[in-house]
Amino acid sequence: MNAVPETIIRTEHLSRRFGSLVAVSDVSLEVRRGEIFGVLGPNGAGKSTTIRMLCGILDPSGGKGTVVGYDIARESEKIKQRIGYMTQRFSLYEDLTVAENLRFYAGIYGVPLLTRAARVRAVLEQTGLTARKDQLSGTLSGGWKQRVALACATIHEPPLLFLDEPTAGVDPVSRRDFWERIHEIAAGGTTVLLTTHYMDEAERCHRLAFIFHGELLDSGTPDQIIERRKLAVVELEVDRAHEAADVLRAHPDVEEVAHYGHVLRVATRNGRDPAALARELLRAFAISNVRAARATVEDAFVAMVRAEENHAPRAD
Known about the structure:
The chain is of the alpha/beta class. The chain contains 11 helices and 14 strands. The N and C termini lie far apart (55 Å).
């Protein structure tokens, strides 16, 4: 079996068509061993199609790539043996207990029979599932099902783990616990590639890639991506907030205005000072509690998507 390379995923100009529909176009990525790599994009952006190509489930229409040292077009079966894959609809057998699910997936993934029982016990302990090992999986809450799904996906200790929208519909406490486990897995040398709609989760990744309309818009660390947008952000309280937001949005240097309760969050581009601009534009409004805020991955994501939409050709 191939040794685990330092570069776990490498793609060059990867594309996928479904008839006349271009789902993925010219995506080039490099993902290194032990990092948590997030793929972000709106619904229909091509995230899941990209993951399916990397998993060896879909053949690419163009370009090339390797995953854990194997060619995605010619060695897909070898890739499938070396990865874990979990989605929000991960197919647990609900009429089996937690332990029975783990034993089943250990067999599917080829965990040697002599070490299988010890491996199941270890995973139960690592994931906090020991006390629930005899409980039917179908009776678990969403957060506990998620733990079982992750345990099943990693029972064979794969060098690469794919997570496709893994925390959708899970409560905030379970999401936080899940992310602690993901960082433990990555610290052990496993690479994690995931898709998510939650921008706070994107901030927890080591590096990110933004995909929109099947194309790669940007990639890098969260800080690098935020910095390249060159946004400045301020939060302020203002009377007649809805009217004030309309005034701010009309200015060409205002990237985004968002309501957070009684607070307006204002992001500007082109080096404009958001606090000074807000005071200039809102002279007819009573402003209080102006404070600088940090630009976020969500700010960067929204800015990129809106820029692409504004530059997209319009239908006649």
